[in-house]
Amino acid sequence: MNVETALQRLKEKGFKRTKQRERILEIFVKQDQYIAAKEILKEIQNDFPGVSYDTIYRNLYMLTDVDILEATELGGEKHFRLGCDTHGHHHHFICTTCGKTKSIEFCPMDSINENLHGYDVENHKFEIYGKCPQCH
């Protein structure tokens, strides 16, 4: 996904195009990894010195709600990344050093469901953490 595609999706969902949102999206397009909200704040404050942490966080959650960003928790803190080109249901390997991700092409729940007879799974999230080849 590029910045223009993301901005078009925002427009379709009824959200305005703002310079701050453009800048946030540019940061994510540059980096193929999960990024903490405080890192986004640090980078965006160069262009928007008065922007608050709350404003960044609200925008990150809004971008997640409209399926532009994906969110996860790493080290007890929310991290965000640009949504994958993988459409629909998918999972990730996440590097604990650099935050880069790799999509997992199958769903482990297919195997897990075999052990959950009688249970009604409503949702799940599956992530694998470790070191990518560059950080290993």
TrEMBL record:
It is found in: Cytoplasm. Zn(2+) binds at C95, C98, C132, C135. It comes from the Bacteria. InterPro entries: FUR, Fur_C, WH-like_DNA-bd_sf, WH_DNA-bd_sf. Binds 1 Mn(2+) or Fe(2+) ion per subunit. Binds 1 zinc ion per subunit. Fe cation binds at H89, H124. PANTHER family: FERRIC UPTAKE REGULATION PROTEIN (PTHR33202:SF1), ZINC UPTAKE REGULATION PROTEIN (PTHR33202). This is Transcriptional repressor. It comes from Halobacillus faecis.
